[in-house]
């Protein structure tokens, strides 16, 4: 049975349910209700009309994306070929995305969003896994793939990556060519909705490019309801939490996704999930279908304030940063937690997060968190297990302050601790795409949080009271002084630095004077001004 037929059957079933509910409701034995009741058929058609209006409003902002190989190589796509084609057969099909006979072998969807740095320009929001290997803005290196975008009004343009983030599975593209700058026919950005008011059972609409059928740019529509919140895209295996620095780890493995009963086929990744007003409340993803799990369910990345922070970073060409606490968390059931507290407090939740260990010099230790503390909530959000904690800490962002509500001791006291979060280590360093940086090079040097990159961390894990060097420019004072990537800097002119902001603040105070850097191993390096 085709996807289109399934969606049609689902629509008819839902419409029948709406009519049935309306008939039952409006048949209630009440004079006042009966006198004011509209026709049940009219109610159903009113819902239908609202769906049509929402789709008409948003479909101009949803695009189809084709991923095209730039050099001849054996076909090894992870996505099944559309229309039942044999990917290993030479069909002599067109490789020109502007050709009507062009059929992409890798494809997906995207959403047009405003550019925060240029009101005259728009950007395209999509999924990271769809764009991996694509061209990067400002780089001349020949990419493995080209990315071609079809709009709803049958225009097309190539696009380059402005920034991409494997941990959120989000990426932002910059349109190229005259289409992107045509003032007479501007590309229309989507309007954001209020995701904080989304509830289970709420009607939602999905627009996307299933199986590349929208390669002409016209997105396909389906609809359903929100089934649940904080879902996982794939099962969390028993040993997953021990693989903290796994390259496959994303923020979504800790339970961020919306689950919808709208079936999302291959190619809907990067599409729009809308409310009934046609506003964007999520970015659809078929990653679960790609990995072979929950094919009957649909998932979407919710466009909540935390995701908006990530999108804003990407739209500015920056690497999104995620919070890091520096503890070993564990989950206790209610009975075990009550035993640990000697019955002094009657705990009522089914499970709690316990601090099993606190890393020295970490944000957690500096905030006063201790081994054995029960963490009840973060920023007012209750925690049931370590996944909840890791999700909320990560979403909060590096350098932000978070309030932890904890219980401590055999005679427990409820305390509120304020912690300034560090940075979640990046495992997939090659997957990160950024075309801008938060700080400029200083004397040929760029630094980050000590946990910024997994490749620089120690085994067993420790939290250095320092910043780490992530880039050294050739022939710069930093290189001439012998500094290399992965070097940890503890002091700048005898002042301790544990964050990039602290480092650059102390460095700028030196102005043009030589600066003494003390490394983690206590060696000292003097950096002259680059002009000296």
TrEMBL record:
Q: Entry's Pfam families? A: PDZ_2, Trypsin_2
What is one process in the GO biological process aspect for this record?
proteolysis
Question: By its UniProt entry, which InterPro entries does this protein fall under?
Answer: PDZ, PDZ_sf, Peptidase_S1_PA, Peptidase_S1C
UniProt KW Metal-binding keyword: no
The record's section on PROSITE patterns has:
PDZ
Molecular-function GO terms, alphabetical: serine-type endopeptidase activity
Q: Which UniProt keywords apply?
A: Hydrolase, Protease
Among SUPFAM superfamilies, the record links this protein to:
PDZ domain-like, Trypsin-like serine proteases
Could you tell me what this protein is called?
A: Periplasmic pH-dependent serine endoprotease DegQ
What family is this?
Answer: Belongs to the peptidase S1C family.
Q: Which EC number(s) does the record attach to this protein?
A: 3.4.21.107
Q: Does the keyword Hydrolase apply?
A: yes
Domain (PDZ): residue spans on this chain = 356-385
